[in-house]
Amino acid sequence: MKFCNQCIVDGELKPIIEGLGQLENSCPICGKRRVFIYDTDIHSELTEYFEQLLEIYTPESMLPSEFPDEEKRLLVNELTDRWHIFSNKLTSTEVYRIIRALCAEKYTSMPSLFDARVGIAELNDKEYLQDHSLLRSNSWDDFVKNVKNHNRFHSNHIELTVLNRYCSFIRKVYKKGTILYRGRISSEDGFPIDQMGAPPSDKVTAGRANSAGIRCLYLANDLDTTVHEIRAGIFDYVSIGKFELMQDIVVVDLKAIDHISPFIEGFDKLEHAINKEHLNRINMEIGRALRRSDSVLDYIPTQYIADFIKSILHEGKPEYAGIEYNSTINLTGQNLAIFYPELFVCTDVEVYHIKELEYKKEII
Ligand SMILES: [Zn+2]
């Protein structure tokens, strides 16, 4: 069975296939040309990685009877949807054939792991969850309730050492000179450069990643996202500032949660399987646009997390300069909340006129 370095998207496994050096004209699975081939008849380098990952799964027949049905899935779907190991161009049959060939021995001893539904037993193990879940009761909603209505500044509903560890896996470096954008709805004349940055402390209102009074510079990676994020209306004028980064910085890239490889050395696969959903929720919550009916209290859970990330130190200095997250208004866009606004300097402002808007709706 042959497949290639393009069939796999996992960042740890790809270089292993490339390192084998077997360059061929085309891949029999994905059809890509001039690729590095992994041939299960002659190579065995990947087997151990998959066997280790498979260890966290238990076949349906061996799971305790109270294990929730909705947490049972086919291994193929786990490998593609939870772990994003294979290219999404591959069909589930192709992924199935690849893992069966890679783990041929395991298949002989335990075919139900591959052919029946499987589950992660610890997902239903209260003791394990207590020690390893990012959220104490394993529920985002409980955490939200706790910080909104019970204990705002010293919540014991979130395991901060676990959050700290994850941040180190999703670090992203931005180099000096990087350009990002911030927009403000303005008049036709636009705002001068010195009014395009984050407002002064006494005028700062609450945002997804900052409490009232704490300055934070919200930037986007392109003009479109900027216009979407400020929710400009039809015929509005929008001043868009171009911001240049003054020094190299490290941010926590929440978007990268889905792409942390389970094969990183020393990485706790089981713990990650349990927390991935919570981490994705944090990314989504920070990027979520508020509706008019929402209250500022709805910002508190993500402010709590942003404040914690801001407090992480490395050798006595702040480790992270901000958080990067997906825009939920412009799905291809990226946003950054920068904790130290002075890291960026506004170098130019242009005024745009919004000529057209597109509304999309669904009946509820
Ligand atoms: Zn391929």
TrEMBL record:
InterPro entries given in the database record: RES_dom (IPR014914)
SMART domains with a match to the protein in the record: RES (SM00953)
Domain of life: Bacteria
Domain RES: 192-350
Pfam families noted in UniProt: RES
Protein name (database record): RES family NAD+ phosphorylase
Species, as recorded: Cohnella thailandensis
